[in-house]
Amino acid sequence: MPPGEKAARRAARERMSWYHDEQARLLVARLADALGAYQRDEIDVFELDELVERYRRARRALDAFCWTAGGGPVVAASMLDRGEVGDWWEDAHRRRRDGRG
Asked: Which residues, in sequence order, are CB contacts of 75 under 8 Å at separation 6+?
C-alpha cells in the first residue's frame, strides 16, 4: 500500500472515530431526554420503550455506517464530505414507520 494511501486511511479512521463519538453522544442525549420525560410522567412506559428501541436502531445504523459500510471508514468519510449522511435519530424513526428495521 502506498504511503499516501496508508495516511489517508488512518486519517479517515480518526475522523470516523471522532464522528462516531459525537453522534453517539447526541443519541445518548436523546435517550436521556426520553428517560427524563418518563420520570416527569410526560410519556408512558410504552412510549419510553419505543424511544429506547429507536435509540437502539439509530446506534446500530451509526455503528454500521462508521465501521462496516462497504469500504469501511474511508468510504464513510467520503460520504460525510459529500453530505450524504442524515440524522440518525430521525432516520431510525423513518425506518420504523417504513417497516425497515
From this structure: 69
